[in-house]
């Protein structure tokens, strides 16, 4: 799991050398970039957006 609150990314320790995250706030896009990948890293990777809802 990689969590990106308010433009800051926090990686699970085992993923630190596998992925880099590029956050572009102007275009509201996130790029997940794999690096040092091995055949055993082959998978379908998903990106999800957390929905924050405030009720008063």
Automatic annotation (TrEMBL):
This protein's encoding gene: Nfu_g_1_024128
InterPro entries hit by this protein: Ig-like_dom_sf, Ig-like_fold
Origin: domain of life: Eukaryota
Record-given protein name: Immunoglobulin V-set domain-containing protein
């Amino acid at each position: 799991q990689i969590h990106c609150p308010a433009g800051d990314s926090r990686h699970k320790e085992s993923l630190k050398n596998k992925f880099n995250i590029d956050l572009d706030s102007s275009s509201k896009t996130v790029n997940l970039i794999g690096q040092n990948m091995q055949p055993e890293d082959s998978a379908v990777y998903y990106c999800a957006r957390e929905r924050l809802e405030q009720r008063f």
